[in-house]
From TrEMBL:
Residues 10-329 form the Acyltransferase domain. It comes from Bowmanella denitrificans. Pfam families: Acyl_transf_3 (PF01757). InterPro entries: Acyl_transf_3_dom. The lineage of its organism: Bacteria, Pseudomonadati, Pseudomonadota, Gammaproteobacteria, Alteromonadales. Belongs to the acyltransferase 3 family. It is a multi-pass membrane protein. This is Acyltransferase family protein. The chain crosses the membrane at residues 12-31, 51-70, 82-102, 129-149, 161-181, 187-205, 214-235, 247-265, 272-293, 313-333.
Length: 344
């Protein structure tokens, strides 16, 4: 299975989305901090815009991997999903709660216990962990979503266009009221807006695109420019509106860019296969640990006498490399510590 095109395609999407998350979190700091219209700001804006497909790609891939294969039993599914996400969610929420407190003490900007508790209860103990909290709801609803797709298949046999239209409709509704949808829902309901993307990933998995790679890449880059330009318009002319619409994961331009990226990455790229297969097993760990190195690198690089653009371009591979190395060390250490104890 590991050498199949299915596995390589899934790994390509997973690795690209993981690397995009790091680009997103490095560049987002530049968008919010740098002077509007400066060359460094535009670089940050374009990088941010290009990496906004990361979370939608994760959701679509989860749909392809969870909604297509047979489900032996609902109880078995929940047991496997709980084992995969519950303990990491708990441990990393506690870790980043402590990290938030420590950063506040170091910066002499103490964070109160009430604020730490509120962050935890609201599903955002740290800025990236919201995704795991959202996944809890998505996993919980997966058996029902599978049943719905099977029922539709029996009575209607919808094409991927049907699910794409559903995603577009959801995105349009989000567009009309994105501020209300985006900020006011409690975390157990966050998954609702991502259900069409979840289903779309399953529907599109076995359907190759008729477009060539050049056309798909051109369309993706065009969407990146659209996202970046809409961000610039909002910040320069409607700065009172927050958050930035085109940066939202459920916005129309991000959805279009995501579909292009999906079809580009779903075609196996054999030249990148060794790198892809090496990084893929560490993707979950990279996602969890990378904010630690993001914070440390920002503090260390703050006083360097180099331009902001150079800092970003150095920080991205630095955070990625440190995250990968940490995951490798952890895997090697845990293998030595735990395998002998459980070997027969």
């Amino acid at each position: 299975m590991h050498n199949s095109p299915y596995s390589l395609s899934a790994d390509q999407i997973r690795v690209f989305a993981t690397m995009s998350v790091i680009v997103l979190h490095v560049s987002a700091n530049g968008v919010s901090r740098l002077p509007l219209d400066s060359s460094a700001w535009w670089l940050a804006n374009l990088l941010d815009s290009a990496s906004r497909v990361s979370i939608p790609l994760f959701v679509m891939l989860s749909g392809a991997l969870l909604l297509i294969p047979p489900m032996p039993s609902i109880a078995g599914f929940y047991q496997k999903r709980v084992a995969r996400i519950a303990l990491p969610l708990l441990l990393w929420s506690l870790f980043y709660t402590g990290w938030t407190w420590l950063k506040g003490e170091v910066k002499q900007q103490p964070v109160s216990l009430n604020q730490l508790s509120e962050n935890l209860l609201s599903g955002t103990p740290y800025f990236h962990l919201w995704y795991l909290f959202m996944l809890v709801g998505l996993y919980a609803a997966t058996p029902l979503i599978r049943w719905l797709m099977l029922a539709l298949k029996v009575s209607y046999t919808p094409s991927p266009s049907f699910y794409l239209a559903s995603a577009v409709l959801t995105s349009t509704l989000y567009t009309l009221g994105f501020q209300w949808f985006g900020g006011n829902w409690p975390w157990p309901l966050w998954f609702i807006g991502y259900i069409p993307l979840f289903m779309l990933g399953a529907a599109m998995w076995g359907k190759p695109s008729n477009q060539g790679r050049v056309a798909l890449l051109a369309a993706f880059l065009l969407m990146v420019v659209v996202i970046a330009r809409l961000c610039h318009i909002q910040l320069s002319e409607f700065s009172q509106l927050q958050p930035i619409y085109s940066y939202q994961y459920l916005s129309l331009p991000v959805l279009a860019a995501c579909v292009c990226a999906w079809y580009l990455l779903k075609r196996p790229h054999q030249k990148l296969a060794p790198f892809t297969r090496f990084i893929a097993p560490y993707c979950f760990g990279i996602y969890l640990v990378h904010p630690l190195f993001l914070d440390i690198s920002q503090m260390l690089m703050a006083g360097l006498p180099v331009g902001n653009s150079a800092k970003m371009l150095v920080q991205i591979p630095l955070v990625f490399a440190c995250s990968v190395l940490t995951c490798m060390v952890y895997r090697a250490a845990s293998s030595k510590l735990f395998k002998p104890a459980f070997s027969s």
